[in-house]
Amino acid sequence: MAVFNASNATTQYTLLTVLVNTAVIGNYSKDPKNAVTGILNNGTYEGRPVSLLKYFDGMLASSNRGGSEGVAVNSLDGGGAAPLMENKPANGTSSNQYFLLTHLYSYFGALLGCTAYGKEGFPAYSGFGSQYEVHKFMDLSHDEVSYFIQEVGLAATSLGVTTEDATAVGKQLDMVFNYKCAANATVIPAQGPQQQSICIADDCPTAPNATCSAYKAQVAEPVPANDTNMYTSTRSAAPSGTASGGSGSQSGSASGTDSGSTAESTGAATLNVLGAVVMGAAGIAALAAGL
Q1: Those residues with Cβ within 8 angstroms of residue 164's Cβ, 6 or more apart along the chain or in another chain
Q2: Per-residue pLDDT for 281 more than 80?
Q3: Average pLDDT of the chain?
Q4: Which runs of consecutive H residues, i.e. helices, occur in the chain?
Q5: 219: pLDDT confidence band, cut at 50, 70 and 90?
Q6: Which residues face 220 on adjacent strands?
Q7: Less CB within 10 Å around the terminal CB: N or C of the chain?
Q8: CA–CA gap between residue 190 and residue 122 (Å, rounded)
Q9: Which of the four pLDDT bands, split at 50, 70 and 90, describes residue 29?
Q10: Residue 282 counted as domain residue
Q11: What are phi and psi of 57, to 5 degrees?
Q12: How far apart are CA 214 and CA 155, in angstroms?
């Protein structure tokens, strides 16, 4: 891949494409600075095994398409890893895979504060604002969300971002998405504060600014897509107290009530840190130098 000598909408979008694709499938760029397993491959978090493929290949009825139950969606129906290795989201533009990957490019572009985000050549994010709503039928554990965040950080450092900057970003992602009952936070400025907790399993730590009463009382645990008894058990997604312990497809209905000005300002401040750390001019240059 060529080294970019300019920072514009096209180059920034290409960088986000490479970053996300690397996080998803692992290293495929020339001479990466470190190894990235990829979230679609079996890996480990702090020595414990993690496998996220089942949330992408349609084997679980875990995607939110707006109903009261999760549905099975194959988000690898656009060629799987092959087009990603060619710096593309998918083969063609009509698959679930194309929808998911292009939304991820734009989502991370907004989250990381890319200066050309929303300009011609770098589409603005048009998916749903509440990542809790998107992921609520997945019943993601702390290790699963942490592994996703880990691979994003490793993808960034493999492309030239410093370990210190990647670690800082990882900590902020952890606070926004990896604590249950978190107060509403703004990730996409145009969408305002939303419920963002992705980690809602029993082992997920409870957010310091927890608003458990604002989250839906019950969510279903995902089961295999061919299971005729689709939902055999439910558990509380909004427990009281502090839990023990220590980020799918963009579908579903966005919802959530603003928890107040304090929650909004906290979320906005958190995501502003991300923009300052990674995708200012220095961050773009660092990524470009790694390509």
Answers
A1: none
A2: no
A3: 79
A4: 9-25, 81-84, 96-111, 131-135, 142-158, 163-177, 261-277, 281-289
A5: low
A6: 234
A7: N
A8: 16
A9: confident
A10: yes
A11: -95, 10
A12: 34
What pLDDT was estimated at residue 32? 83
Which residue's structure tokens are 């978090």? 45
Q: How many domains does the chain have?
A: 1
Question: In the numeric block, which tokens belong to residue 106?
Answer: 């734009």
Comparing C-alpha atoms, which of 137, 147, 193, 156 is closest to residue 174? 147
Determine, yes or no, domain membership for 1: no
The whole model's pTM is what? 0.78
Segment 110-158, tens digit of pLDDT: 988 899 999 999 999 999 999 999 999 999 999 999 999 999 999 999 9
Does the residue 2 lie in any domain?
no
For residue 4, being part of any structural domain is answered with: no
3-state secondary structure of 184: coil
Tell me the torsion sign for CA atoms 93, 149, 125, 181: positive
CA angle 135, 140, 146 (to 5 degrees): 110
Residue 100 has pLDDT above 50, yes or no: yes
Question: Using alpha carbons only, how large is the chain's radius of gyration in Å?
Answer: 18
Structural domain boundaries, residue 148: 9-289
Of 270, 278, 99, 135, nearest to 193 by C-alpha is 270
Long-range contact pairs involving 4-8 (C-beta distance under 8 Å, separation at least 24): 4/288, 4/291, 5/288, 7/115, 7/116, 7/281, 7/284, 7/285, 7/288, 8/116, 8/121
Instruction: Give the Cα separation of 113 and 43 in Å (integer).
Output: 29
Of residues 48, 67, 226, 77, the one with CA closest to residue 141: 48
